[in-house]
Amino acid sequence: MEKLIITGPTPLKGEVNINGAKNAAVAILPATLLINGVCTINNLPNISDVKISCEILEKLGAKITWVTPNEINIDTRNITTTKAPLDLTSKFRASYYIIGAMLGRKGEIEVGMPGGCKLGARPIDQHIKGFELLGANVTVEKGTINGKAKKLVGTNIYMDIVSVGATINIMLAAVLAEGTTIIDNAAKEPHIVDVANFLNTMGADIRGAGTDVIKINGVKELHGNSTYSVVPDQIEAGTFMLAAVATKGDLLIKNCITKHLDSITAKILEIGGNIEDYGDSIRVWCNKRPNKANIKTLPHPGFPTDLQPQMGVVLSLADGTSIINESIWESRFQYTEELNKMGAKITAQGKTAIFEGVPKLYGAPVYSTDLRAGAALIIAGTAAHGTTEVYNLEHIDRGYEHIEEKFRKIGAKIERVTE
Ligand code: UD1
To answer: Is residue 256 among the annotated active site residues?
Structure first.
């Protein structure tokens, strides 16, 4: 078993480079199934969700060559099966993108229900509704999803709720469909725009991604023969921004798109932090105890739920009492029990948590309950007095490349040990 040992407090100082976005990469990789050709993808984060996505593609018949740890060539000319391996697809949430991509490519898919962080109920009814409106027949039995379509035909789809996964999945299924598909009430996250940009680079005709109406004019084929670079990770950048504030540090966060970070920048300014915005990098520093603030997580461009635990660390140390209202996931406050072990005073009930700010956190053994909770505990350990041990690193490794190396480079006293 591996754990991280962190000794604090350390104000994080220096420069940190942001990798490609996990949530874009895990959608772009299955999107390559729509191409009957070869393409190159770079700026891929070297994380376990990406490696598993590649393994699934290989099991389906794709040929992958790793050019560097962050770049692959992928040949999807010979897709040999429509059964996705259950043992791999159950390991993470984004395996559901195989459904839209394979319905588009082969008109058929058999795949297990997706796994991923346990953040509460994670239904896929909106994905299925979209596939069925496009003409597929989808059944879910004994944990297996079966999809079949003689032909997919473009149509108008109004999403009942704003869903990142369903928006991308329906987009994937619609790219090669006959005619025009309109997704209304679509999600607007940066990774949705990135997947659309990738597909358009390969010959798709998708307009409006990043707004709540996406129009997809079906094309006969995608050509490949292109190189695509994954968008910088909004959530990784936000994680380091909040790490700078929580540790009273000073970080220059490089290779990010600062427009994607507006909701985080606004909150950091509200709680007394400082920002210098250079467009593709951002300096964040804070030399005093943060002020209290109230937060409600919302779909983009609202405050992202995937930065809620990291913001929770900041507010647990704020001057005054703050409230976080989590509007996306019902079980996203599990990390608060771990922070309370470190001296935080947080009361969580349902989708609301009250943070009575304390002046200091103290090191303790803590357990990552999910991916972003794990990142939050590393920030807490760096800000806390004494030694923190963080367990359940498999969650963190799913989404952050070399996280302890990045923290060490900016001053954290952190090491990974195997027990
Ligand atoms: C994606 C992200 C995840 C992030 C989330 C919200 C990936 C791989 N993961 O997850 O990190 O926390 O967006 O920004 O990109 N819902 C339904 N029916 C559906 C689909 C969703 O009821 O068919 C509900 C969910 O339960 C949730 C809300 O809609 O309450 C938003 O979920 P969604 O945006 O789909 O999240 P994911 O795509 O799973």
So the answer is: no
